[in-house]
Automatic annotation (TrEMBL):
Belongs to the lysine N(6)-hydroxylase/L-ornithine N(5)-oxygenase family. Its cofactor is FAD. Gene3D superfamilies: FAD/NAD(P)-binding domain (3.50.50.60). Pathway: Siderophore biosynthesis. It comes from Isoalcanivorax pacificus W11-5. It comes from the Bacteria. InterPro entries: FAD/NAD-bd_sf, Lys/Orn_oxygenase. GO terms for molecular function: monooxygenase activity. The keyword GTP-binding does not apply. One of its GO terms (biological process) is intracellular iron ion homeostasis. Keywords: FAD, Flavoprotein, Monooxygenase, NADP, Oxidoreductase. The keyword Flavoprotein applies. This is L-lysine 6-monooxygenase.
Length: 436
């Protein structure tokens, strides 16, 4: 079986940025044989949240390359140039393209690396390949839509799988009920509903705000926005605060002691979590203000409320909701419930579970490499799940371009030694596929 230098799990922005960095790094330091495995059938960036009026929350200059290599041909500006839209974009006078356009930019970058990516396969485990007492290689197992299991061997691994939907415990039993869905499936699931009239949106972040406005603009809908907080607080993107998303700040966070890191995260939480853009907040406020003018009760802002219990039957999804100030509760029946309740970033632990004896709790060094026990030779890197050690920029686009350069550097050190040992160890061919 062929042995790759590197396998990347997921082909979202993080690993596309890495594919670009490897290509550009390879021009000076030698080619790395990299293969990426992506669950979706083709590239798409949060496709179920590509809402018509949604915009980027970050400058287009923080694309997949510019902060690392402003002269890269994979920049957003070169994308515009190649699409013959550069002049028009300049006339837009914005740093914040639509999410549709940024998705198109990302798809354009991904298209240059399609030959390196296996689309339509979901990785479900990574196994150790032993050489004596040492782990010499990793065996990456994935499953395609037909159930067929694919196996690949690699000397190093980069996990960039993004977040998994965070489902509040009260909704855990309703995962198969199509009337209750997470924001990450919003457009697809809404499209499957039979003209829903009464809907609840749970959450107070950017996605909750966008979904509320999207639903409120649809004819005949009545939407309850249910949130534990009293007020929507805007994302703080003022210039000094924005410096926490500079690459140097990653050093600042990483070099702090664990307790101080947690305090830093807490202090700037409002840059990214439960913090929609001010413009969106103003639009939502206007929706409720217009209702006051007309005396309508069509949409409700259920501030300081929490879902206590959920019961689903043929009539709909019944939410018992408690007022956190008074303790009173009431029940409402909905045709659909959207959980804009954020993401968890633990998927890497499940994928790496068979390697736990060597990788322990998956703690990473500054270069995002998982610290391994003696005798574990492959290099394993994590992208997008190192927020506790590397700061709030970790899950965003902000430091992505620079992070990939750091991973490339670390790979350069890790690979020659690993590949020399592995090629000696793996003279025997092994079956490339097993039926799942
Ligand atoms: C709606 C929305 C809007 C956002 N807007 C912004 C913004 O404006 N600015 C910003 O900085 N950040 C934004 N973000 C944050 C977002 O996390 C980053 O923009 C970016 O998507 C992170 O890239 P990633 O590759 O790490 O993760 P993802 O984009 O989540 O990509 C991960 C990829 O891995 C694949 N995958 C997952 N599991 C497996 C598996 N087991 N096997 C194979 N493939 C797998 C997924 O299908 C996906 O394609 C937004 C997030 C959301 C949800």
């Amino acid at each position: 079986m062929h042995i790759h230098d590197l396998i990347g799990i997921g082909f979202g922005p993080s690993n596309i940025a890495l594919a670009i960095a490897l290509e550009e790094h390879g021009q000076r330091h030698g080619k790395v044989d990299a293969c990426f495995i992506e669950r979706q059938g083709g590239f798409a960036w949060h496709p179920d949240m590509l809402l018509d009026h949604a915009h980027m929350q970050i400058s287009f200059l923080k694309d997949l390359v510019t902060p690392r290599n402003p002269s890269s041909r994979y920049s957003f500006l070169n994308y515009l140039h190649e699409k013959s839209r550069l002049q028009d974009f300049i006339n837009l006078k914005t740093f914040f393209p639509s999410r549709h356009e940024f998705n198109d930019y990302l798809a354009w970058t991904a298209s240059h690396f399609e030959h390196q990516c296996a689309f339509g396969e979901s990785v479900f485990e990574v196994l150790p390949e032993m050489q004596g007492k040492d782990v010499s290689l990793l065996r990456v197992r994935s499953r395609d839509a037909s159930g067929q299991v694919h196996e690949r061997l690699t000397r190093s691994l980069v996990i960039g799988v993004g977040g998994a939907p965070n489902i509040p415990p009260s909704f855990a039993g309703l995962q198969d009920d199509t009337r209750v869905f997470h924001s990450s499936r919003y457009l697809s699931e809404l499209g499957r509903q039979q003209a829903p009239r009464r809907l609840a949106v749970i959450g107070a972040g950017q996605s909750a705000a966008e979904i509320f406005l999207d639903l409120a603009q649809r004819d005949g809908t009545e939407v309850d926005l249910i949130t534990r907080c009293w007020a929507f607080k805007p994302s703080d993107d003022s210039p000094f605060v924005n410096e926490i998303f500079n690459p140097e700040y990653t050093d600042y966070v990483f070099n702090n002691a664990t307790g101080q890191r947690a305090a830093l995260l807490e202090e700037y939480m409002n840059t990214n979590y439960a913090a929609p853009d001010l413009e969106l907040i103003q639009q939502i406020f206007e929706v409720f203000y217009r209702q006051k003018v007309t005396g309508s009760q069509r949409h409700r802002f259920r501030r300081r409320h929490e879902v206590e219990a959920v019961v689903a039957d043929d009539a709909g999804v019944h939410l018992r909701v408690a007022n956190l100030d008074t303790g009173d509760s009431d029940s409402t029946c909905y045709d659909g419930v959207v959980l804009a309740t954020g993401y968890q970033r633990q998927v890497h632990r499940d994928l790496l579970a068979p390697l736990q004896p060597w990788l322990g709790e998956c703690s990473v060094n500054r270069h995002y490499q998982v610290q391994a026990a003696e005798g574990f030779r492959p290099a394993v890197f994590l992208q997008g799940c190192c927020e506790p050690t590397h700061g709030l920029s970790d899950t965003l686009l902000s430091v992505m371009a620079v992070r990939t350069a750091e991973i490339c550097q670390a790979l350069q050190h890790a690979l020659p030694r690993a590949s020399a040992r592995a090629s000696a160890a793996h003279a025997e061919p092994v079956a490339a596929m097993a039926q799942g």
